[in-house]
Amino acid sequence: MEDTVDNIVVVGGSVAGVHAVEAARERGYRGSLTLMGAESEMPYDRPPLVESSTGGGKPIQHLRPAAWYDAHDVTLLRDCRAIELDPGNRVVRTSSGLPVPYAGLVIATGSQSRGFAAGGEHLYSVRSHEDAEALRGRLTGVEHVVVIGAGFLGLELTAGLALSGRRVTVIEVAPAPLARVLGDAVGRWFLGLHEQHGVDIMCSTLAVAVDAVDDRYIVQLADGESITADLVVAATGAEPAVEWLRGSGLDVTDGVVCNAALETTLTDVVAAGDIARWYNPLFDESMRVQQWTNAVEQGRHAMASLLGSDEPFTSVPFLGSDQYDARMRFVGVSNAADSVRIEQPSSGSLVATYARDGVQVGALCINATGQLAHHAQRIKERAPM
Ligand SMILES: Cc1cc2nc3c(=O)[nH]c(=O)nc-3n(C[C@H](O)[C@H](O)[C@H](O)COP(=O)(O)OP(=O)(O)OC[C@H]3O[C@@H](n4cnc5c(N)ncnc54)[C@H](O)[C@@H]3O)c2cc1C
Known about the structure:
The protein folds into 3 domains: about 10-110 and about 240-305, FAD/NAD(P)-binding domain; about 115-235, FAD/NAD(P)-binding domain; about 325-380, 2-Layer Sandwich (Enolase-like, domain 1), CATH 3.30.390.30. The protein is about 25% helix and about 30% strand. It contains 9 helices and 25 strands. Helix 1 (about 15-25) crosses helix 8. The protein starts with 7 loop residues before the first strand and ends in a 5-residue tail after the last helix. Flavin-adenine dinucleotide (FAD) binds near residues 16, 17, 109, 126 and 274.
């Protein structure tokens, strides 16, 4: 096979980036291949950081062993942060001063934690291995933790902290955990799950600032009340890491805007993973998905597009989240659903199906994983609900 481009550079050494370089070699690409990332660690997996940050599991799980990069003739540049994309000269400028020229480029710089208005320096968060190690190292002697944000990450961290015997208070601005994403009824189910484990979830509550006093932290709430804790963890969401792309001519409004094949508006530049906002023909909408399976599939797909394929990326998003003994799996989308149907096949399990204009678009299964494939198929077929 003749390579359509030579010298491919992938920026962002994580899930999407590793799968992109792997796909290049699998597709027979023989040219130069560089994977560059801002972190000093070799690319690693993020979901295990939840367990490792709260004291369990392995400290780090690399996505591929060091020898894999040599075996696939991939130049791995670590500690190398992209600071500017110059598409006119086809060069990525980096923090080390080293310009990295490219013929084809994959943008895979993912997400970064969203900041917290006042007192952010007192907060721990879990986005990177470094963050997880910092939190793990700080937990000794801690009895009471406040977690700000009851999204998936906040709730998984809460479960880990509660299981380790600590008292946990969660502050959430929405009326129920996950309510914005999954609706009030499912949110109340998660509220009950955490309450059964002794967690206090304060809903419809806004944290506005965090102050350090002696060895403790005071979380100020919008209603004038405050909570004192030994440690405060922020899980207030993530935003796309697009700073280095400003001024490049790309549209970076909530992610890098791509077409259905994950191509950007710049020639020979594609995007994949948490950072890509692409048009998904299956749902007839532009979406950005911050989930592990999506990053794997998009890394592979974006590379195929760079190497000449024009197939659209029409995947059904998938997300898994384990909290205590609840195994939650979600397929499809739930935003803009106009009807939600809830069934509880047994105590401790729940199935919610989401529809838009009478067509099934999503399904959530808690301790009912056997039903997932059926629902994923229905979503793919745009089946009526
Ligand atoms: C703690 C945690 C738990 C999670 N658990 C789950 C889960 O259970 N299930 C699930 O589906 N998803 C989960 N996710 C989300 C999932 O891990 C992400 O969707 C996935 O990692 C996205 O991969 P990515 O390669 O697109 O981006 P990222 O993993 O965000 O990686 C981007 C990489 O690019 C680097 N980078 C950023 N800017 C630059 C720059 N300017 N120059 C060079 N490099 C740069 C970053 O340092 C990073 O290494 C979790 C995420 C976290 C943080």
